[in-house]
Amino acid sequence: MDHAPSPDSGFFDDWAARLRASADRPVVGILLRGSHARRAATAHSDVDVDVLLGGAPYAARRAYLAEHSGRLTHVSVAARDIHSWVTRLGEPADWAFGLPVTAPTRLLWADSYWRHRIDLPVLCQPADEPRLEELIAMLGKVAAARDAEDTLGARLAAADLARLCPSVLRLANPSVRVVSRRSAFAAALDLPVAPAGYREDMLRCLGLLPGSTGQLWAAAARLVTGTLPLIRPYAAEVAGAAGPDLADALLDGRLDRYVAQLGRPGGRTPSASREPAGVPAPRAGQWVTVPVPDAPVTGAHPDLPKSPGGSRRPSRLDPAIAGRLRRTPDGLVAAVVRQHDSGEVLMMAWMDDEALHRTLTTGRATYWSRSRREYWVKGATSGHHQYVRSVALDCDGDAVLVSVDQVGAACHTGQRTCFSDELPVTGEVAP
């Protein structure tokens, strides 16, 4: 990294005075933004300045190359009237992948009337609404480009789809705030509740991994089909953003059918097809279930049981870990869950290889439902999340100990722990 000196306070003060003197309308405040305000600048960082003006709505940009310590520094100036600048703080940032922003800033100068209103240690902008309608529309554009063998069109639409996906997945994830475009990108890629293969598919759609038009379509389709079951518990939020019909389509299976329709070249309908069953709206307190993803078996242990259809459940669990597991005939190991700091035993559930993989890699406790034959993420519907702190395998390999930070009740009855009914012990207790 280049450690050449970056501009000091005198440089910023001089530029604040220069910008005030050269403005063609009254200046009410000047703020420093970006990497210099975050104290994360390098010798090559731009200097980003907001000049806030009084009067009628006005916006303009100017760029300068200023010399400092024998080096040229790019100064980028955004001039905007104060009222529209304040309004923009109430709107999502277009670079933040739909995530909320808390970006440090530094006041360089302000007049006495506006100082207390704009002297903010951080500039906060809200998260974007869940843009599910646009996400589905972009998948349609990728499908159309695929059918037309339009590689460029597929790449452009897939990139737009990837930028929309985090705004929808945000519904099922813990809140996170970002300070820069780089941090927004990292947070968008690292969402703990996400479809299988999410990170790689995002990178491919964004053009950061190579891929043919067919591979782009497959990645885009996996992002959407994997997102739908994760956000079904949040249909009310979808209704607020896109209207009740799209929310109903999310719940009754029409969206799944539409996405499946897009997967058929030219929109052809197969001669014999089975429509997926409707998905009932989850009730408060229920655990959400996520269908098993249609993905290749890359890390499955050879003695995994077969599902009723005859195929093994897919898993990406590290083979070194999978080889240590001793499973039940159903391919499961017991998962004992405790509070990480107090040691309180909270619940017991079951995991197969893929559930353990998801628990280890997403930071969210994920289990296998024996009755529904589906994965479920604890707290995705009830809000009683389990954030995983550590996982330990027992000496026999037939159980795991999951240490979590439990939010709310662990038991579906509303109790903190599932082990709340003590049984009488009548035997003598050793001294």
TrEMBL record:
<keyword id="KW-0028">Amino-acid biosynthesis</keyword>
<comment type="function">
    <text>Catalyzes the hydrolysis of the adenine ring of phosphoribosyl-AMP.</text>
</comment>
<keyword id="KW-0378">Hydrolase</keyword>
<comment type="subunit">
    <text>Homodimer.</text>
</comment>
<comment type="pathway">
    <text>Amino-acid biosynthesis; L-histidine biosynthesis; L-histidine from 5-phospho-alpha-D-ribose 1-diphosphate: step 2/9.</text>
</comment>
<dbReference type="GO" id="GO:0004635">
    <property type="term" value="F:phosphoribosyl-AMP cyclohydrolase activity"/>
</dbReference>
<dbReference type="Pfam" id="PF01502">
    <property type="entry name" value="PRA-CH"/>
</dbReference>
<dbReference type="GO" id="GO:0000287">
    <property type="term" value="F:magnesium ion binding"/>
</dbReference>
<keyword id="KW-0460">Magnesium</keyword>
<comment type="similarity">
    <text>In the N-terminal section; belongs to the PRA-CH family.</text>
</comment>
<dbReference type="InterPro" id="IPR043519">
    <property type="entry name" value="NT_sf"/>
</dbReference>
<keyword id="KW-0368">Histidine biosynthesis</keyword>
<dbReference type="GO" id="GO:0004636">
    <property type="term" value="F:phosphoribosyl-ATP diphosphatase activity"/>
</dbReference>
<dbReference type="InterPro" id="IPR040517">
    <property type="entry name" value="Ant(4')-IIb_substrate-bd"/>
</dbReference>
<feature type="binding site">
    <location>
        <position position="398"/>
    </location>
    <ligand>
        <name>Mg(2+)</name>
    </ligand>
</feature>
<feature type="binding site">
    <location>
        <position position="394"/>
    </location>
    <ligand>
        <name>Mg(2+)</name>
    </ligand>
</feature>
<dbReference type="GO" id="GO:0008270">
    <property type="term" value="F:zinc ion binding"/>
</dbReference>
<feature type="binding site">
    <location>
        <position position="418"/>
    </location>
    <ligand>
        <name>Zn(2+)</name>
    </ligand>
</feature>
<feature type="domain" description="Phosphoribosyl-AMP cyclohydrolase">
    <location>
        <begin position="347"/>
        <end position="419"/>
    </location>
</feature>
<dbReference type="InterPro" id="IPR026660">
    <property type="entry name" value="PRA-CH"/>
</dbReference>
<keyword id="KW-0963">Cytoplasm</keyword>
<keyword id="KW-0479">Metal-binding</keyword>
<comment type="pathway">
    <text>Amino-acid biosynthesis; L-histidine biosynthesis; L-histidine from 5-phospho-alpha-D-ribose 1-diphosphate: step 3/9.</text>
</comment>
<dbReference type="InterPro" id="IPR038019">
    <property type="entry name" value="PRib_AMP_CycHydrolase_sf"/>
</dbReference>
<feature type="binding site">
    <location>
        <position position="411"/>
    </location>
    <ligand>
        <name>Zn(2+)</name>
    </ligand>
</feature>
<dbReference type="Pfam" id="PF18280">
    <property type="entry name" value="Ant-IIb_sub-bd"/>
</dbReference>
<comment type="similarity">
    <text>Belongs to the PRA-CH family.</text>
</comment>
<dbReference type="InterPro" id="IPR002496">
    <property type="entry name" value="PRib_AMP_CycHydrolase_dom"/>
</dbReference>
<feature type="domain" description="Nucleotidyltransferase substrate binding">
    <location>
        <begin position="133"/>
        <end position="231"/>
    </location>
</feature>
<feature type="binding site">
    <location>
        <position position="396"/>
    </location>
    <ligand>
        <name>Mg(2+)</name>
    </ligand>
</feature>
<feature type="binding site">
    <location>
        <position position="395"/>
    </location>
    <ligand>
        <name>Zn(2+)</name>
    </ligand>
</feature>
<keyword id="KW-0862">Zinc</keyword>
<dbReference type="GO" id="GO:0000105">
    <property type="term" value="P:L-histidine biosynthetic process"/>
</dbReference>
<feature type="region of interest" description="Disordered">
    <location>
        <begin position="261"/>
        <end position="320"/>
    </location>
</feature>
<protein>
    <recommendedName>
        <fullName>Phosphoribosyl-AMP cyclohydrolase</fullName>
        <ecNumber>3.5.4.19</ecNumber>
    </recommendedName>
</protein>
<dbReference type="GO" id="GO:0005737">
    <property type="term" value="C:cytoplasm"/>
</dbReference>
